[in-house]
Amino acid sequence: MKLLHLFFFIFSVLILNIHPAFAQQIDRPVSDSTFVNLKDYSTDFVYDMRYATENNFLKAKVYDCAECYLRLKTVKALIAANVEFQKLGYTIKIFDCYRPLSIQKRMWQMVPNPSYVANPAKGSIHNRGGAVDIALIDSDGTAVDFGTDFDFFGEEASHSFKKLDRAIRKNRKLLRKVMEVNGFKALESEWWHYDFKGALGEKVSNFNWGCN
């Protein structure tokens, strides 16, 4: 039986060109609520993990190392969205994914204001492994213009803000359309933030990843 599993795994990876993580999942099913590392399921994303640097509104590094963990069901939906974007000549760039509750508490200590940081007493969708902060790059690797930087908290970052160039509004509309078709919901005040459907039903987690 072990040899049969090994054969199926090799066949899936080499012949069917399935990513090794997906091949393992087919061989040994993994719960959709399991935390997984996005890079183990796809190599087609660009990363700019701001909270693993000081280039964020906190001006502080709060992650020891940059990784994008999410619930498996969120990963599947995000990959599907990225496939659609790539057909249009774009690729998703990721700013933030799952955020352990301990990190949420640290951020709250720095900025105890719910207008900027979710109160860890309730936890956020980020703490549940169902939220992503994203943008797009084009086929040349150039950042698509969305009108503001990530984590800009003025009214200009809102989806309802209309005093923007037509091209910027079009970019935001495209981002929202593709994400929503693939099961995500936009946060009205932040053009970059998307929650996966049903994620609020997951428990707040303090799962922490290790750094190599």
What is the residue-mean pLDDT, rounded to a whole number?
90
The spatial strand order of the largest sheet comes to 2-4-5-7-6
Uncertain segments of ≥5 residues (pLDDT<50)? none
Number of helices: 5
Distance between the termini: 33 Å
Number of strands: 7
Largest sheet report: 5 strands, mixed
Computed over alpha carbons, the radius of gyration is: 18 Å
How would you describe the overall organization of this protein?
- With 212 residues, the protein is an alpha+beta fold.
- It contains five helices and seven strands.
- The protein has helices spanning 2-15, 20-27, 72-87, 101-110, 166-181, and strands at residues 35-37, 46-47, 69-71, 90-96, 131-138, 184-187, 190-196.
- The strands form two sheets. A five-stranded mixed β-sheet has the order 2-4-5-7-6, with helices on one face. A two-stranded antiparallel sheet has the order 1-3.
- The longest helix is centred in the middle third of the chain and has 16 residues, at 72-87.
- The chain is globular.
